[in-house]
Write a structure and sequence with these properties.
single chain; mainly alpha; about 240 residues; globular
Length: about 240
């Protein structure tokens, strides 16, 4: 079983490295991920995520001068591949890039126009998965999409739709701020904990030093007292000439 999985992983890697971005390659990936061995599956998923991330960067760099349709085809392949291996972040990032690319080109090709529903779906997926920044951008783009295509009048259905979108957009914005505050708070508490530890260590060393000094001083004082006491006894026994 392990050998068969290794062979399928190697085959998938070869397909991607040879730029065979097609359904057959995705089917190989699906076959790789069909296993009941959970530890092996988790390890394989992690390796595949790393492979896909490096190959996606390389492939997208290679097609910078290609036609929009070709770019979208490659992006869609990686979106589906990242979805299969459970890399939600990479999947959403590429979805966002594809939507932005379509918006930038649709004036020349109206088939590429992005509907506001697509932006809303993307934004909700991002919000549900904790990616608040791109969620806020998605909701904002949905609003801009409506405003650029519809002549709004107060009370219209379009106006009502925009107001509904503003709710989750504002929530995403608040969560961005909250996340930033939480991050800053965590960093502050970490710094404070470090300072407290350092101070405790220093005061501990100081206390040990003071205690040690006092102990040595006590012994010294006691020895002096014993010496004086001994001399006093000798004077009493032997007189002044002793």
């Amino acid at each position: 079983m392990a050998e068969a999985m290794a062979e399928r992983v190697a085959l998938f890697a070869s397909q991607v490295q040879n730029r065979r971005f097609n359904t057959a390659t995705l089917q190989i990936l699906e076959a790789v991920l069909v296993t009941k061995d959970v530890p092996s599956l988790l390890e394989t998923r992690s390796a595949l995520r790393d492979l896909l991330r490096s190959q996606a960067m390389a492939a997208l760099g290679e097609i910078s001068g290609k036609a929009t349709d070709h770019k979208l085809y490659i992006v869609e392949f990686f979106v589906r591949a990242f979805a299969l291996v459970g890399d939600v972040e990479s999947c959403l990032v590429l979805k966002y890039e594809a939507l932005v690319l379509r918006e930038s080109k649709y004036l020349k090709d109206h088939d590429l126009e992005v509907a506001y529903e697509e932006w809303i779906t993307f934004a909700k997926d991002s919000l549900d998965n904790g990616f608040y920044t791109i969620a806020a951008k998605g909701f904002e783009n949905a609003i801009l999409c409506i405003q650029s295509n519809i002549n709004l009048d107060p009370g219209t259905a379009a106006d009502h739709t925009i107001n509904k979108i503003k709710g989750p957009r504002d929530m995403a914005t608040r969560l961005i701020a909250s996340h930033s505050v939480q991050t800053e708070s965590a960093e502050y508490l970490q710094r404070k904990a470090t300072r407290v530890y350092q101070n405790c260590s220093l005061s501990s060393v100081t206390r040990k030093y003071v205690a040690s000094s006092m102990f040595r001083y006590g012994i010294k004082k006691r020895n002096i007292q014993k010496l004086y006491h001994s001399r006093g006894l000798n004077r009493d026994v032997g007189g002044p000439y002793t």
